[in-house]
Specification:
Aminopeptidase; eight-stranded mixed beta sheet; 12 helices; alpha+beta; seven-stranded mixed beta sheet
Length: about 350
């Protein structure tokens, strides 16, 4: 077997790479690819945040792609710098034709970080490197995914009894559901999401980020919103990838819990996804020991440990972007008290640097 060539490193800022067709084809063919490896995602993140994307590639002797690693160069005066695969994603990392190519891509990522003066590389999934400077992080996040049932009745039976009762009450509550990706749905979703994360004490992402992802994914992304007497109370932006629905950015207002709007939202999304031909529901990742972790278990999803990889330059410490970190406790408490208009104005300036 011929050894893979040294990683080739390209970059773009808003404009597609010259080998865009190759990138699309490789992701479409690779069994482990996620939406966060796609050119659509990477270009959307760059367009919305300005963070440059570098594509590290492996090639065979004939020049054909044998692996890719998209890396967003995240810069923040508060959180520092990192090359992240992929920016604003829960997945990404190396996808390659074999271990030798994966090792080459890891070497290329570390070399790129050194050349750019960036102290760390963060890989959120994919093949995990074991070379010099690399370490593995586990025991922090878990993923939750399972197959969708054949219909609503079977879906209800797949939910544990206590949570099933809550869903049944939500279905009988008179709440209504809308779906789409037009201007009105986007406006309502952002208002709800911004309110939700403010109440949790974290800064909201720029609205341009959601718009860019929706525009890039077209029919492979949409918004589902639950309404009470016509008013939006819960909303989620989801991605659709290879028969899997991925509720990605969601939240609810203060009254959503009492109305059981979140219960209706996720059950309605399961129904909506089945109608779109999906067979699997990916509830996303959550930190161990948190409320979202327990909530997803209540729905009958079994946690699957997630392992991430990080490269650090000698003497450097990893970025700390965890809102549950003790160093941010005071800031989180203060953020919860901000007026929504102030949080929405300041938040995107901060959140853009989280990546």
């Amino acid at each position: 077997m011929n050894a893979p060539t040294l990683a080739v490193k390209d970059g773009f800022s808003g404009a597609p790479l010259s080998d865009a067709g190759e990138w699309d084809a490789y992701v479409a063919a690779h069994p482990d690819a996620t939406p966060f490896h796609s050119r659509a995602w990477c270009e959307a993140i760059t367009k919305a945040t300005g963070h440059r994307c570098h594509l590290v590639t492996g090639r065979d002797p004939n020049g054909g792609l044998t692996g890719i690693l998209p890396l967003h160069h995240i810069r923040s005066p508060l959180f520092g710098q990192a090359l992240v695969s992929s920016g604003f994603a829960v997945g990404g990392g190396i996808i390659a034709d074999g271990p030798a190519v994966a090792a080459t891509l890891a070497e290329g990522a570390a070399a790129m970080a050194k050349s750019l003066g960036v102290p760390s590389v963060e890989l959120r999934g994919g093949s995990l490197p074991e070379g010099e400077g690399w370490s593995c992080e586990e025991g922090v996040y878990a993923g939750f995914a399972r197959n969708l049932a054949a219909d609503d009745d079977a879906e209800l039976l797949a939910i544990p009894r206590k949570q099933r009762a809550e869903v049944r009450k939500a279905l009988e509550s008179g709440l209504t559901v809308t779906t789409g990706h037009g201007a009105a749905e986007r406006r309502d979703h952002y208002r709800i999401y911004a309110t939700s994360v403010r109440n949790l004490g974290t800064p909201v992402f720029p609205k341009a980020l959601f718009d860019a992802v929706l525009d890039a994914f077209c029919d492979a992304a949409d918004i589902l919103t639950v309404r009470h007497e016509g008013r939006p109370v819960a909303s989620v932006l989801s991605l659709y990838w290879r028969g899997t629905v991925m509720p990605y950015w969601g939240g609810g207002t203060a009254e959503a819990r009492g109305l059981r709007a979140n219960e209706l939202m996720y059950f309605a999304l399961m129904r909506h996804a089945r109608a779109k031909g999906c067979t699997r529901f990916d509830f996303g990742r959550s930190k161990l020991g948190t409320g979202p972790f327990a909530y997803k278990k209540n729905w009958g999803f079994e946690p699957q440990p997630l392992r991430y990889a990080r490269w650090l330059a000698p003497g450097e410490a990893p970025r700390d972007t965890n809102p549950n970190s003790a160093r941010y406790r005071l800031q989180v408490d203060l953020w919860k008290k901000l007026p929504l208009w102030a949080a929405n104005r300041i938040g995107p300036l901060i959140a853009r640097g989280l990546g």
